[in-house]
Amino acid sequence: xxxxxxxxxxxxxxxxxxxxxxxxxxxxxxxxxxxxxxxxxxxxxxxxxxxxxxxxxxxxxxxxxxxxxxxxxxxxxxxxxxxxxxxxxxxxxxxxxxxxxxxxxxxxxxxxxxxxxxxxxxxxxxxxxxxxxxxxxxxxxxxxxxxxxxxxxxxxxxxxxxxxxxxxxxxxxxxxxxxxxxxxxxxxxxxxxxxxxxxxx
Length: 201
Fold this sequence. Notes:
Shape: globular
Strand order of the largest sheet: 2-1-3-4
Order of helices and strands: EHEHEEHHHHHHH
CATH topology of the largest domain: Glutathione S-transferase Yfyf (Class Pi), Chain A, domain 2
Largest sheet: 4 strands, mixed
CATH class of the largest domain: Mainly Alpha
Number of domains: 2
CATH architecture of the largest domain: Up-down Bundle
Distance between the termini: 14 Å
């Protein structure tokens, strides 16, 4: 098994799950700054030219949500089997794909620009605050996003951790999210995954 990825929130999601599973996996860093994700070799695996990509024998999976779902199903862990619990985890998994992922990404992109469209930045910032509020409401009175620790947590953690560092005001008042971030960040496998330390001798 090989994970092709880079040091971004999306790139760290599958590394967290692989660390939790403690599965042997070769790591190949795809340097986005050098446009290595656009090479013919990489595009043959992932036509979208993004990271991450997982190669498992003759199975190739790209898009972080699809990779985590594939690995969880293969392992029989972190994705429940009962319909109600499974639907809950997958709903929150793909909530992250459609909401915090792209919105937070835009906020970070605009924040790095020397001259930026303040109206656009404010729009993405406001939506990011709203999405943080959605998660905060969800986490009140519970340890994990779903009924138990799952891929839903692993999907959201890297992006919310990035926002807590880069744009901390987005988390203002979101005490349940901050508590959850601390709980996630204290897991040894999460620490390893965030550092992309998934290879074993």
